[in-house]
From TrEMBL:
<dbReference type="InterPro" id="IPR035906">
    <property type="entry name" value="MetI-like_sf"/>
</dbReference>
<feature type="transmembrane region" description="Helical">
    <location>
        <begin position="176"/>
        <end position="198"/>
    </location>
</feature>
<dbReference type="Pfam" id="PF00528">
    <property type="entry name" value="BPD_transp_1"/>
</dbReference>
<feature type="transmembrane region" description="Helical">
    <location>
        <begin position="127"/>
        <end position="149"/>
    </location>
</feature>
<keyword id="KW-0812">Transmembrane</keyword>
<dbReference type="GO" id="GO:0005886">
    <property type="term" value="C:plasma membrane"/>
</dbReference>
<feature type="transmembrane region" description="Helical">
    <location>
        <begin position="22"/>
        <end position="48"/>
    </location>
</feature>
<feature type="transmembrane region" description="Helical">
    <location>
        <begin position="231"/>
        <end position="249"/>
    </location>
</feature>
<keyword id="KW-0813">Transport</keyword>
<feature type="domain" description="ABC transmembrane type-1">
    <location>
        <begin position="90"/>
        <end position="297"/>
    </location>
</feature>
<comment type="similarity">
    <text>Belongs to the binding-protein-dependent transport system permease family. CysTW subfamily.</text>
</comment>
<protein>
    <submittedName>
        <fullName>Spermidine/putrescine transport system permease protein PotB</fullName>
    </submittedName>
</protein>
<keyword id="KW-1133">Transmembrane helix</keyword>
<keyword id="KW-1003">Cell membrane</keyword>
<dbReference type="InterPro" id="IPR000515">
    <property type="entry name" value="MetI-like"/>
</dbReference>
<feature type="transmembrane region" description="Helical">
    <location>
        <begin position="276"/>
        <end position="296"/>
    </location>
</feature>
<feature type="transmembrane region" description="Helical">
    <location>
        <begin position="94"/>
        <end position="115"/>
    </location>
</feature>
Amino acid sequence: MAAGAASGGSATTDTYKEARTWLLLPAWVTLSILVLAPVIMMLIYSFLTKEFRGGVIWEFSLAAYDQFFFDRGLFGDDPPKIEWTYVTIFWRSIWQAGAATLLSLVIGFPTAYFIATRSENMRPVWVFLITIPYWVNLLIRTVSMKFLLRDQGPLNDFLMSIGLIDSPLHIVNTNFAVQLGLFYSYLPFMVLPIYAAVERYNFALSEAAADLYASKWTTLRRVLLPAIKPGVFAGCILVFVPSMGSFLAPDLLGGAKNFMIGSLIEEQFKGNAGNWPFGAAASMILLSMVLIILMFSARQQAKADKAGG
């Protein structure tokens, strides 16, 4: 009987594993087609030769990576020097994405806390209000932001009408405009994970801290933040990563002087004069940088959780 029971249990386990495999198969196929295949294609293209009318020649070449990292002069026969142009664009992308993430955290955290502390009937209403603007296409929202911030736009007209300024503020085509655009584009990605974490938080812990004469700042720093840290971490990642590769906000709000890596990649695939291998190489470098940042952040998060546990 024991042998029969063990045999039956093994058969049930095998059936469960087989069913799970078949259920996961559509997801794996979808991910392979929509995620893995494009990345592999970009990796292959980055090692091919440029076709001057657009596209690629199927000949192995490291010219795209060489162009990104080294400057060999106009005719390519000078001693190699570091190509600071693209390094500067990458640094600007990191800085802009970091600033947008910080601004989203500063605004998104209290917003998420406010929503999570409303009554159960009102929380869905506030979440609904947060997501309404994002029913509209990102391009339309970014163009609307440009219209709002331009020299003759509603913002400047209002500030001049109440006497706060005498002449229009030049906001468009500045770093500040790009940061506002990124912040506006990805703010819900910060609010919603933090809201989900705060909603699950046990507020009895804050009450216990207050009973032990902890100040509100101490309760926030020592009790609330450690408990909702996964939500904050997820929100920061969800804002930082897409901000790094964004090109709509830099193109429409930043102008040529505020080029970001997403804009650089977009330019390489535009029209018949682009450099597809160089764009693919820049994409792979961006992907590698994002993966390094994610791995480092995950490692630091694991160390912090282990130390806290």
